[in-house]
Amino acid sequence: MINLPSHRLPDLLRWFPTGAPGSAALTEHVLTTEAGRWWVDRVIQPRVIAAECGDHVLLRGDPQALAPHDLSVFADRSIEAAGRFLPLIGAAFDRVVPWQRVVYIKRSPVPATLAPRGVTVRRLNARDTRTLTTLPIAMSWIHRTWGGPEALARSGYAWAAFHNDRIVALACTYFLGTAYEDVACVTVPDPRLQYLALDCVNALGSDIAARGHTPSWTCSASNRPGRLLAWTAGFRPEREYAHYAVGKAAATGRVAVG
Q1: 132 and 97 in contact (C-beta within 8 Å)?
Q2: Exposed (0-12), middle (13-18) or buried (19+): which is 45, by Cβ within 10 Å?
Q3: DSSP category for residue 233
Q4: 155, 170 in Cβ contact below 8 A?
Q5: Spatial CA neighbour of 51 closest among 83, 17, 86
Q6: Please, what sign has the CA dihedral across residues 78, 83, 88, 94?
Q7: Per-residue DSSP letter, 5
Q8: How far out from the chain centre does Cα 166 lie?
Q9: Under 8 Å CB-to-CB from 36, ≥6 apart: which residues?
Q10: Terminal-to-terminal C-alpha distance of the chain
Q11: Cβ neighbour number for residue 5 with a 10 Å cutoff
Q12: Using one digit for the tens of pLDDT, what is the confidence trace for 117-166?
């Protein structure tokens, strides 16, 4: 696969929809933030194109144009692709785990909540970069689609709950689309600070609405806490799909950079 800079991209409309919720907004996010990468099988009239951001990959086109080693650049990622790609994906990696996912859309208003004493809920800014870097490793995925903690802190698309100058809950726009903004949220495992995730999601949702966009939410079908939070925050199921968490490459090959 060839890593292609955005100014050399082909017309994307036939490859990816625009104005769609959930992970479908990944391509719009990459175009807007330049926080991801584009891959094609060839520069002129590509037969396969992939958008990569954070740990996510959207793969489109004709799988017969690729060999298994061509996908080695996507090791340890989550790949969303049509069923016709599954034999190729299965041959390319030592592990392929299907995950059922649910896309929700904000449908219902939620009454304003009041943060408990000693907790402040506010928008992140550049001065919060250092605090973001102190998040537990397990929570670091939250800023990967922006290119790191500094980029997320500066973006203006994240709200956090602070307790004793540390972040205990954070919600951000994970994928910034032209019509939808897909929301992600993390919280520290402290039962004394429960419900703060909802405060952050509500604050972010008001921001998204003010931008003329609609909040969406994507999580695993088996993620009961995530689904409960989405429902409590006024999100309702829109569609289901599967992506594939893959392991190490089963075969290696050269990666061309264009």
Answers
A1: no
A2: exposed
A3: T
A4: no
A5: 17
A6: positive
A7: -
A8: 24
A9: 26, 29, 30, 51, 52, 53, 54, 145
A10: 10
A11: 11
A12: 888 999 999 999 999 999 988 899 999 999 999 999 999 999 999 988 88
